[in-house]
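Sequence in, structure out. Go.
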Amino acid sequence: MGSGSPPASPARSQKRSSCQFVGKYVEDKDAVQGNIFWLPPKAELPEKAVRRAHGKGIVEEGIYNHPIVVVSRPDDERNIVHFHLITSFQGKKLHEVYSKNNEFHASRRSWYLPIYPTPHHPDATSKKAKKRHPTLDLARNAVLRWDSYVNLRHVYKIDWSHLKPYTNPDTPSNIEYRFERESMIRMLAKGKLLTTYETGTQFRSPITVQIPTSQATDHGQSVFQSPRSETASVSSSEHSVLSPLPQWDFLGLGNGRVGVTQRPPSEPPDPNKHIDGISRVGETCMLQYSSKWLKVLSFGLLGDSGATKISSPSL
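Output:
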């Protein structure tokens, strides 16, 4: 370990709270790899709600009432998520908890990865060492309330419905907390080296798609994309952990994505029919072409083709 201590992180609120979630529920679509939730106190959970997903040993009492990060939602256990614990060490830094320059403390330090803006890992003293002990980043510049570390040594599992949303009262505008894709890949790779744990085939919740109803058209075409806000839902296929993770960053139009162009029907379509290869979700919306309104079906992603387009010739 280096002789100097890691630089201090930005100042944060000094008031600590044992409970940092709002009384809301986790939704099925959010129970995916990389998302951060709150594990409630043991007294608020059913008996043996938390078990080990990998390895042997008891479930330590100290894991409860902490934030956690989902590392897997197995396809063969769709109501279950596997997770790592996130700890703030009660305000201490990793080099303060394991401060000795011996093999035991070095081994214990290797179990943890810091989450920005927590100071870098105390053993990340060279370019090569920083690759072994990377600092993890949250998506969209979100930050946790305290300087925190992911404990890679233990993998637990729980029914995701028992989890609570994580919130940081210091940044109330943030409504989701998840690791960015590159950090998630590094976390899983490091965890595999330490424990041999592998995530396996993942269950992917339906991705929701927004149907814009008052979006300006470009060259006479209205483009249907799939941003984070949503109104309709479509199902998607399985994926591997090292394939693109099931996050909303990777949806929408991109290079090589093909749109489908379709003339508006002369009369409102039959909602019970499958029209010209367009998948019906079961929702409808109103689109305005010139001075007329048409009732059309809402629809989602067509396989791997990405978003869908509808042409809007003059009526």
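Check: The chain has two domains: 28-195, 206-315. Residues 206-315 form one domain.
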